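Notebook entry, structure prediction.
Reason for the run: the old model in the group folder had no record of what sequence produced it. Starting over properly, with the input documented here first.
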Amino acid sequence: MRFSAAILDECRRMDALGVSVEQRYAGGTSRVAAQSWRPSRLHFILKNPGYHGRHVLKSKNGPIEREVPALVDRATWDAAQAGLARNQRVSTRNAKRKYLLRGLITCTLCGRRYVGASPRQRSGKVKVEYRCAGQLTSASLHAAERRRSKTLPGDLEDTVWSDCRRFIDDPGETLREA
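New structure, fully documented this time:
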């Protein structure tokens, strides 16, 4: 799993402040678990609903929920979840190209965002296009739904930029229409 720069920066900040990485056990015992913060540990903490007062025990009979003392209020936890989702949505990971419209177009079939894709053609040339994220990665969508998702051409970026340029050069016409 790749982590956002924000989580990596926070791990470095906590290391610099000397915040210890401890594991706590029932009965009040604890031990130092590591010398430095790892992104996976911080990510687990941020995703753990126990921090806002809900503990979920996964049992063979299904999940069992119980209330526990909250460490942060629900609004803070919800804001952290929204930030994690936003970081994941705009993450570039190991992209070889910037897709300017990535995440701005929504699929009408499944509600997922469109992402950039550059499949190689038989000639070896790279074709730039946008595809629904569900079309690329989701096994939860039926095959028929994946095929129905439209693939958008990469030159859509040029069209959007020319419209932006036209508005910047002469906003009056667009404002009159609005």
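Summary: Strands lie at 21-24, 30-34, 54-59, 62-67, 114-117, 129-132, 152-153.
The old model has been moved to the deprecated folder.
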